[in-house]
Amino acid sequence: MQCPDEIAEVLLRILNVGLLRIRKSGSEGHAEECETEADHIHNLPAILQNYSPELLEYYWNVERAGFLSTEAGRSSRSFQAEWRHLQRLMDEHGVNYHG
């Protein structure tokens, strides 16, 4: 199934921000932060390539939640606007998620 365009746009922006954060952390020698960032975004290309509501739900409930449980996730505001936008789109598309 093709990823809805509006969801794809948000996921691409999240990927872009995540990759920029990985590049910055890597240039500063912070390998653990790179790993945390990569864990957060590494499955987003699969959602874009082979969309399913279940994959998006997994990203939201597991990967995003896992990222938020880390120091990098708790201190980051980089993704907040995109997550709010994605949450609205998930509501519109009937994707189940936990807050």
Describe this structure in words.
By secondary structure, this protein is mostly helical. It has one domain. Helices cover 75% and strands 0% of the residues. It has six helices and no strands. Helix 1 packs antiparallel against helix 2 (31-41), helix 1 packs antiparallel against helix 6 (80-92) and helix 2 (31-41) runs antiparallel to helix 4 (53-68). The longest helix has 23 residues, at 5-27.
In short:
Helix content is 75%, strand content 0%. The chain is built from six helices and no strands.
Primary descriptors:
99 residues; globular; 75% helix; mainly alpha
How is this fold's topology laid out?
Blueprint: H1 5-27, H2 31-41, H3 44-49, H4 53-68, H5 71-75, H6 80-92
Helix pairs in contact: 1-2, 1-6, 2-4
